């Protein structure tokens, strides 16, 4: 009898060893999120994993347009969080997301920022037309929401065409922030949360008036292989704990 029990225990142990990696893989959750959410979602990740033992959240940060194109090309993802409703709407229009499941969970502000020593002496948008300003950092408007917001604001003030020859385009808002932090541009357009993140390396000159606030929609993707857990992540982002972490990084509640 004792020999039989030992055999059963050994068999069970082997099954656990064999199934453990499969279980861990089954609970992997891929979140494709806008680059400007990098710090906030990195803060949120450990809290969600602690509340859902066995789940491994894999964050995929990039410009919202680039993330959408990844999804369009079949890249695996369970959750999409965009820095601009435009890319979420494309995801809805092309059948990757159910419109009823899209929620706006945060807002942000667009600012004109300069390197800490402000060598060009920029104090307002009007100063960008002067000879002292030779380079302006801006996200590529076609794919970077922060660049799209900046282009719309400058176009409304009839400045975009005039300033375009001075523009240095970034592949994400974080790349523009890097330009500013290293003093490689005279000024640039980034989100307020990014400028705050840079600390003493970057100074905010002005908040840019926008026709609509910078809004962040989030949704579970239809082809998610773990839709229940994906929805749990979306719910956690909107929870009091998630909102507190977002606010700590400078985001506003919608």
UniProtKB/TrEMBL annotation:
Coiled-coil intervals, chain numbering: none
Domain of life: Bacteria
Alphabetized GO MF terms: metal ion binding; molybdate ion binding; tungstate binding
Keyword Signal: yes
Keyword hit for Signal: yes
InterPro entries: ModA, ModA/WtpA
Signal peptide range: 1-26
Keywords: Metal-binding, Molybdenum, Signal
Family membership noted in the UniProt record: Belongs to the bacterial solute-binding protein ModA family.
Assembly with partners or alone: The complex is composed of two ATP-binding proteins (ModC), two transmembrane proteins (ModB) and a solute-binding protein (ModA).
Name of this chain's protein: Molybdate ABC transporter substrate-binding protein
């Amino acid at each position: 009898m004792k020999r039989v029990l030992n055999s059963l225990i050994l068999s069970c142990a082997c099954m656990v060893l064999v199934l453990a990696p499969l279980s861990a893989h089954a609970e992997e959750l891929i979140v494709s999120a806008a680059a400007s959410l990098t710090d906030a979602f990195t803060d949120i990740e450990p809290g969600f994993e602690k509340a859902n033992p066995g789940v491994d959240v894999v964050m995929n940060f990039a410009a919202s347009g680039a993330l959408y194109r990844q999804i369009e090309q079949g890249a695996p993802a369970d959750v999409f969080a965009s820095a601009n409703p435009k890319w979420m709407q494309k995801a809805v229009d092309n059948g990757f997301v159910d419109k009823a499941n899209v929620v706006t969970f945060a807002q942000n502000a667009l600012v004109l920022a300069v390197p800490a020593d402000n060598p060009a002496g920029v104090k307002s948008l009007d100063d960008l037309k002067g000879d002292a300003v030779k380079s302006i950092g801006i996200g590529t408007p076609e794919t970077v929401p922060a660049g799209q917001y900046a282009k719309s604001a400058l176009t409304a003030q009839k400045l975009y065409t005039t300033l375009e020859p001075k523009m240095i385009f970034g592949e994400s808002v974080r790349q523009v922030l890097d330009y500013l932090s290293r003093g490689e541009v005279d000024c640039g357009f980034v989100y307020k949360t990014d400028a705050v993140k840079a600390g003493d390396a970057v100074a905010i000159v002005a908040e840019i008036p926008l026709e609509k606030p910078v809004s962040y929609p989030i949704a579970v993707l239809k082809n998610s292989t773990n839709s229940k857990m994906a929805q749990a992540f979306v719910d956690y982002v909107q929870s009091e704990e998630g909102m507190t972490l977002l606010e700590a990084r400078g985001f506003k509640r919608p």
